[in-house]
Amino acid sequence: MENINFGIDLGTTNSGIGKFQAGKVNIYKNPVGFRDTLPSVIAYRNARILVGDKARELTAVQPENVFSSFKRKMGSEHTFHVPATQENKTAIDFSALILKELINFVGDEKPTSAVITIPASFDTIQSNATKSAGYSAGLQEVLLLQEPIAACLAYANTQNISIDESKNWLVYDFGGGTFDVALVSINNRELKVIDHEGNNFLGGLDIDNLILEHLFCPILEKELGTENLWKQMVSAEKSAYSKLFFELLYRAEEAKKELSIKESVFVELELDLASKFIEFEITRQQFNELIHPKVDETVKLTKRLLEKNSISNKQVERIILVGGTTYIPYVKEYLHQEFESTVDSSIDPTTAIIVGASYYAGTKNKQNLSTEKAEIKEDLPTKLQDVKLVYEVNSQDNDELLTGFVPNEFSGYYRVTRTDGGFDTGLISFHSKFNEFLKLVPKTSNFFNVKIFDKHQILVFEKENLSINHGIYNISGQPLPNDICLEVDDTLGTTYLERVFRKNDILPLSRKLYKTISKTILKDSGEKLIINIVEGKAETSPASNLCIGYLEINSEDLSANLLKGTDIEIDFDISESRDLTVNIYIGAINLEISQVFNASAKQVSIAKVRLELEKSLTNIDHEIEEFSNNNQEEIADRLNDVRIEIIELLKALIDIEDDLVTDKIYNIDERKRKAFQVYDDLVRRKNVIAEIEEYQAYKMEIKEELLLKPNPKIEHVFNNIIKNEAQFLNSNQTSLIKSKTKELQKISQEIYFQNDESYVSLFYQYSYKDLDEYSNESIAKKHISNGERAIKDAKYTELKAIISALYHLLKVKPKDYFEDKNGTLGLK
Amino acid sequence: MKDIITQIFEIENKIKPEDFATFKRNFQRIYHELEQEGFIVVNPKDQPYDERDASIEANILNENGSNLKITKVLKPTIYKNEGGNRILIQKAVVIVE
């Protein structure tokens, strides 16, 4: 038979829900704001019903429409008048709203039965009222459990405490707004609350106020030159300091949390009124002295509870802590000092009740309570079929209108939430049609869940992941016909295209890129930094694309040397009329250049075209040879045609060297692009596949090595390299894949040299060199003979030292293959 | 990480408006790098108060409750992108009046 599994803490200040699953309790987070708990507060505002955090924050603005601590009125005839809706509500109605909200935390498998906790002080009427709230929230079965019992269960289960004899435990529950203590007797058969004590108006908030009043105010009074600051802040009459109160309260809460971990904290406050920042220190000692009276009050209540029941301190085996205020170390210390019992704070005190309730639910079978169910529950509502939702998929506004139509004179409620947890309309009543402006997070996709409830607030329609893109498209603008790319250096001495804007992006567009300088450019050295912006396809070779912006920064124009590795910021803006504006900023040498490239004026550099043509010749010769060797004569022939065209273009370039008048260079550039496009089509795909294969081969090799000889450090580096694998393997950019392969090769070498024997072959590489390559031949000779002896005796540490000595003797040091090559453009 | 972001935000707010130009690029760069790591930081200052905005925790001063606006931000809103999903990891703490 199925178990209930769901446990709910329906608290005075905060509530929460959990589920027992596979031996553990999972606490559900609020999908709005992602917290474990939900403030037990209801607010009515602008025809909305708000539950939780947003409701609580309205307390100051519309106190008459905000309802909290209604649990204290559970089971009474007290009704709450809601001015906003002109309705009268009971504590049961509000509790049902809280429960419905908690049930919403649970994903697809909504609970039909649940265990709900109640205070030890609840009588039969109050308990039944809690059950009623559960039924009107849609639950078909409700089991009640006293909060102290739930806390004990949570601790006993998570710590696997075995109970052989009868013991007394104290459950000390010091929450945000209330304090409760219960004496529980526990044995191997049952847990029972013997008696309890409490104060409904003593909690963590009182401590925050104390910090503010007694630690902050005296310092601030001096700074601000005022008296009675506390009174001025909290008085009903508005003063200049009313605003300060909230900021100080926030700082006080932060200080309290920090003091639970640290011995002292620095509090920093911005005083708008005095236009300055002030800083002061609070020690834990000061804090403990301050809160002592409050903690002592709880201890007195606890002692009274024990006295009433004629139980001595020694008879209390364990005090278990519940509620957020018990995070404060002094609470634990003082309890330990006063009662000499084990003070148990081993599990999260804010969720202990939920955990306990869920454990209990995990042991209880679901019952067939058809009679009870029939009284309260109506027939299950039918799901709505023809709901029509109308909205724009793409928007550049901060809000986007969603209209919902429900046929057949439907009356009920709707609620829209954003899946990132940052937006929630609350429940809003409507008839047939609703309009809601949805708030969008800028420049990204926004996903919303739309829910419609019937008049009993039972879910009858749900649409998940309704998507609205902000700022990505603008239907009124022109789309880009091609990618716009920046040519950048890779680490291998070649260049590739980095996409700045994507084909079909809508104009106008702007983007900032952060790059680094890939070669040192000394002032007046004649070197230059090249910014080349092209239009075409990002995954092709740079030379096959149309240059739309070309800028050279010459070494003569630099105010200082531009060093490799320096940061460079490049801003790109394309207007609706396709003008490209590039702003370049190099902070290190304080260089700022802004250039507008007009779409009608082509930018071609003879030097750059020549360089591209010359570089490609070597590659094309190599490719022709490879295709011929593989009997792919047809491709080899076509490549040969491209080769001839390149040679002709180089000749043509010589002819126009001094030609500043005609537009021959544009013709050459056009022919060059065509030639490179053909070359790309014939060769690029093959090369990309070859690169991917090489990458995969290294990856497999390293994986196997790591399996045989695990090394967490290398594994970490390896995982970092392959992290975005899908992205770079699908980029069609040989440069990108090649640089990743190079990183893998570096790891592979590192693994290889983990083995001492690897140094033997390295040593022989040095010993086979001509002696005249060393700066001192006789010393080198001596090292080599020592090295041979070290190999014979398997003395590898010595061998490593000899290799290092030989390296230092070399006149010309061998180049490190893994060192990044200087770029040709100067931009990486 | 959210604590570090909050500290960066605090430093940014401590700089006097007349001195801010010197630091502007640095902050832009920091927020850009954070975005690359999946963190989106939103400063809701001067936005009108919206009771549906669950990304802020408001302390409301003006008790007559009309034309409410965010006048001070003590902590910014932080979202984190994880595996294509964006989730709220820190609510902004703001003063509304």
From TrEMBL, chain A:
Entry-linked SUPFAM superfamilies: Actin-like ATPase domain (SSF53067)
Highest taxon listed in the record's lineage: Bacteria
UniProt keyword list: ATP-binding, Nucleotide-binding
Pfam families associated with the record: HSP70
Alphabetized InterPro entries for the sequence: ATPase_NBD, Heat_shock_70_CS, Hsp_70_fam
Family per similarity comment: Belongs to the heat shock protein 70 family.
Protein name: Hsp70 family protein
Originating species: Pedobacter fastidiosus
Automatic annotation (TrEMBL), chain B:
Domain of life of the native organism: Bacteria
Name recorded for this polypeptide: GrpE protein
Organism in which the protein naturally occurs: Pedobacter fastidiosus
